[in-house]
Amino acid sequence: MNKKTLRDVDVKGKKILMRVDFNVPLDDNGNITDDLRITSAVPTIRYCLEHKAKKVILMSHLGRPKGKVVESMRMMPAGKRLSELLNVPVKMLKECVGDDVKKAVETCSEQVIMLENLRFHPEEEANDAGFARNLASLGDIFVNDAFGTAHRAHASTEGVTHYLPSVAGFLLEKEIEYLGKVVESPDQPLVTILGGAKVSDKINMIENMMDKVSCFLIGGGMAYTFLKAQGKAVGNSKVEEDKLDLARSILRKAAEKNIEVVLPVDNRIADKFDAAAAVKDVGDQIPDGWMGLDIGPKTIDLFKQKLKTAKTIVWNGPVGVFEMAPFAKGTQILAQYIAALPATSIIGGGDTASAVREFNVAEKMTHVSTGGGASLELLEGLELPGIAALQDKA
């Protein structure tokens, strides 16, 4: 990684303005249901405290308030959980810019300060220069530790870097290290598992990884577009009809490059999209009135066989509707199998990260990304604005 990190600057006596990604899921009572993004930021925050930073001022967004104050999207639950994890008080502010915020930062006794939801202001997503300057005025050094938003050129990710020395936090550094290695020089053989609903979401990643991968394993909803493109019957399964030619093109390119593309040879199907639906296992032809919602047992064994000799495994997208028990088996068995392998295992963020946590194997993976969209864009070979804006090492 060619970017300066927190270790490259002296934080002693300095006010550290830090972008974190505390966009955590909440239940109907405002309780956090998954605190991975908060726990992942703790090492960077703790380093600043241990190295005698004057203040650590945290900024984040939560949800999609669309530029307006939404009471259920305040940062209070995240600040409370952070205080528990750090075992220090966290000062919660009711705004993120303005004179009252500046005064509170200067005068409060707490060392850790949590600003209010950045996206209560439309200027955040618009990367408004004045808003960015106001945020930057709160600190002496900017640390970006929010990989989940690094693919967005927002005021708090890109804008503030024009006004402050700007470096990467430890989480951002780790994300770039693991995902960057996959893009540049992965240990071979590299096997990539692709799932989720749409081929269109993964097309750029497939094309960028084509010269690096020895094998693509394709499951989830996107598999049915590929199967239909091969002339297989897919019943009522989810298919992107306008991407059938694209699927054929990918299969043709892979064949020309001698890259294996492994599609389901059997499927777990249901008569409706419902956990209480009638369920059965069939081969690679799905009858009318039924839809594929998970890979079948033969496909699970086939995928395991292909994964067995991998040195690097990248997994982006569940291979079934794992949120429903009857269709969780494929994702669960693969997650447990990969966790026991000696390979470097890199789990894309979003649903795949949720799945490995659901099945209690996240700790056994080499790296679980905190950013779904950001990890996908990095694997597509794109430059992420929030990373590009940081200072280069000399």
Question: What do these coordinates show?
Answer:
The chain folds into two domains: 6-169, 3-Layer(aba) Sandwich (Rossmann fold), CATH 3.40.50.1260; 178-379, 3-Layer(aba) Sandwich (Rossmann fold), CATH 3.40.50.1260. It has 14 helices and 15 strands. It has helices spanning 36-50, 76-86, 99-107, 122-125, 129-136, 170-184, 203-209, 222-229, 244-256, 297-307, 329-339, 351-358, 372-379, 385-388; strands at 15-19, 55-59, 90-92, 112-114, 141-144, 166-168, 190-194, 215-218, 260-262, 267-270, 279-282, 291-295, 312-316, 344-347, 367-368. The protein has a six-stranded parallel β-sheet with strand order 3-4-2-1-5-6. β13, α11 (329-339) and β14 (344-347) form a beta-alpha-beta unit. The longest helix has 15 residues, at 36-50. It is elongated and about 70 Å long. It starts with 14 loop residues before the first strand and ends in a 6-residue tail after the last helix. The model has no long low-confidence stretch (mean pLDDT 95).
TL;DR?
With about 400 residues, the chain is α/β, with parallel strands linked by helices.
Net shape: elongated
Task: Work out the count of structural domains.
Answer: 2
Point out poorly predicted stretches: none
Q: How would you characterize the largest beta sheet?
A: 6 strands, parallel
So what's the CATH class of the largest domain?
Alpha Beta
- CATH architecture type of the largest domain: 3-Layer(aba) Sandwich
Number of strands: 15
> What is the strand arrangement across the widest sheet?
3-4-2-1-5-6
CATH fold description of the largest domain: Rossmann fold
Tally of alpha and pi helices: 14
Q: How much helix, percentage-wise, in residues?
A: 25-40%
